[in-house]
Amino acid sequence: MSLVRTVSRALKCRVIGAAGVAVFALFGCRNLSAPKSVEVPRKPVPTKTVDLATAGSISGRVTLAGKPPELHAIDMSAEPACAKEYSTPVIAPTVVADANGNVANAVVYIKSGVSDYAFRAPSEAAKLLQKGCMYEPHVTALMVGQNLDVANDDQTTHNVFMMSQNNRPSNRSSLPGSEPVVESLVAPELAIPMKCNVHPWMKGYVFLFDHPYFAVTHRDGKFELTGLPPGTYTLVAWQELYGTMEQTVTVAPQGAVSADFVFKAQ
Amino acid sequence: MSSSSAVQRGGTKPVPVAAHRFAIATAAWIVLLIIAGALVTSNDAGLAVPDWPLSYGSWMPPMVGGIFYEHGHRMIATVAGLLTIILAVWLQLREPRAWVRKLGWAALGLVILQGVFGGITVLMRLPPPVSTTHATLAELYFVTILSIALVTSRWWQRDLPLLEDASSPKLRTLAILTSAAVFLQLILGAAFRHGAFNLMPHEIGAVVVLVLSIVTGRAVRKRFGSVSDLRRWGVMLSAIVGTQFLLGLAALWAVSQAQHAVQPTVTYISLTVIHVLVGALTLATSWMLTLSCFRLIRPAGAEAVKSNSAAARTESSRA
After folding, report:
1. How far apart are the first and last CA of chain B?
2. Which residues of B touch A31 (CB under 8 A)?
3. Residue B182: per-residue pLDDT
């Protein structure tokens, strides 16, 4: 019965092939589909502390030159519990810039120059709220050792999916009225994507630093980093769509330095 | 294969038509399951339910947003599993052919494995190799059920004369190669969709499948154009591969348009889901042609039968 043998052989080959894929799958678990977040290199344990008597600051503004992209309104019809909270269309906060080009949700941080200093993370957790099926704030920045509390203020279910590369990625339930989901992140990491798969338009970013010199801009685009020890630093500004910009900044003892970033609209 | 052995075994009766119809109904349900699975991926709802096998700690979570697609997919899969259990037991009790009974249990094993991989991929947060395996097993499971449906049909169990294929390469070989190419193409498509590979292997595979299907379809028409049981599948194969190729271009366009979209668009969801569905139907068609070739065409080296008279007997036996 050649058909039986052939079919049997074909099925065996396919089952063996599928089993081979399965074995590969079980041992090759790296999630290649997660967007890569920027890695911060690990460093030796720091011992120095900042002398506030000599500390300086960096302040400035993040702006956008040119016309921001046309962003479409979010269709929330799949979730009436959230849709009813809005009287006007909700625009995805990919680029939030006012008429003067001031950019909100940009993250400005010291990339290098403070690795010798030891810092203590705040004891209170950073707060992230799921409200109206959107993340508030859209971009969150906190220190390593600080918890991130993700609360659900909606009358609907969310899942909290953190696509971390340096930390343990997690996907957790967030039921209405439940206790906040507490994320304990232990390694520095930049631009960790965060999303809800129940509501696919819900996206946010989390930044994790091992120092306190970072800021997320608000609607006026302004930022200020204080308590910086004198020295030369690489200052970075990140924007979700436009990527990063860098500049070198030197802070004198008790000095106040101004540094602006201008992203160019594509 | 001698056609008489497919019908009788130790004097037992052929498999009742009801088992065959049940297999067809199960296959139809699996088509629904494949659509449901494609909707999960296209709606980015694969992780909308973080836990497994329960959904948010219950058997019936609120069916909102992505939960509707993910949990809906799980419910349809559960029914598919139940249907397969019934089919496997039914065949075990009533099917005289041991290899068909084994096929029933193989289908059950596949759907159980498929369920486990579905759970693993959710709990591990969709690692591309696991998600790709889940998609691949779905196709294997589908063709296994289709095979059961075909081999339990009255047509399969009739005393059909075997035809000779004097050409080279043999149509049986071409059909098997086409099915293998389609299957590999489905794996490459799943690997792209789940982030394991980029698109190029799948694009190359599309050309290979297109060429093979043209060659195979042409071979069916030229060698067995008067044999309706083969001609039908040959025509369908050509039509469905051509359609799938165009759908692939449309899906590619939809993917490029949706790159910066804030959420999956209706166009993106529709075109990608239809492309997945027709991909499964392409595999089904090529596999049905393959099985039909093995049923009707005498293997190389066996005693020759004139194809004209054999074709006439094949036609009359269907009456």
Report:
1. 23
2. 125-128, 195
3. 98
Look at residue B307 and tell me whether its pLDDT is greater than 60: no
Domain final residue pick, B97, B127, B157: B157
Residues 228-247 of A with CB under 8 A from B: none
- Whether residues B147 and B199 share a domain: the answer is no
- Residues of chain A with C-beta less than 8 angstroms from the C-beta of B125: 31, 161, 169, 171
Task: Tell me the domain boundaries of chain A.
Answer: 1-30, 56-264
**Residue in A15, A25, A169 nearest the CB of B125:** A169
Option in A18, A31, A198 nearest B128 (CB):
A31
Using the predicted structure, report yes or no on whether residue A36 has a pLDDT greater than 50.
no
Q: What is the pLDDT of residue B308?
A: 43
Q: What is the residue range of B136's domain?
A: 12-157
- A21 to B264: CB separation less than 8 angstroms, yes or no: no
- Cα separation values, B75 from A34, B104, B125, B141, B280, Å: 27, 22, 20, 17, 20
The domain at A56-264 falls in which architecture?
A: Sandwich (2.60)
B261 vs chain A: nearest CA distance in angstroms? 8
Which range, A19-28, A140-149, B10-19, is most confident?
A: A140-149
Residues from chain B that touch A197, judged by Cβ atoms under 8 A, are: 44-48, 66, 70
Size of interface A-B (CB pairs under 8 A): 131
Q: Is A78 in the B-facing interface, judged by CB distances under 8 Å?
A: yes
Helices (H), B127-227: 128-151, 154-157, 171-193, 200-224
Closest of A137, A98, A90 to residue A221, by C-alpha = A98
Q: Which residue has the higher pLDDT, B279 or A28?
A: B279
DSSP per residue, A112-132: ES-TTB-----SSPEEEEEET
Q: Are residues B114 and B235 in the same domain?
A: no
ipTM: 0.84
Q: Residues of B with CB below 8 A from A201's CB?
A: 262-263
Is residue B49 domain-resident? Answer: yes
pLDDT, tens only, A149-180? 999 999 999 999 999 999 999 999 999 999 99
Give A173-188 as a DSSP string: EE-TTPPPEEEE--S-
Q: Identify whether residues B243 and B278 lie together within a single domain.
A: yes
Give the mean pLDDT of chain B. Answer: 91
Q: What is the pLDDT of residues B88-114, one digit of tens each?
A: 999 999 999 999 999 999 999 999 999
Exposed/middle/buried for B265, CB within 10 Å: 0-12, 13-18, 19+? Answer: middle
What letter would DSSP give residue A45? P
CB contact under 8 A, A78 and B65: yes
Nearest to A28 among B126, B129, B291 (CB): B129
Residue of A nearest to B292 (CA): A3
Tokens of B214: 């043209």
Residue B6 buriedness (CB in 10 A; 0-12 / 13-18 / 19+): buried
A13 near B CB under 8 A:
no
Contact: A21, B132; criterion CB under 8 Å: yes
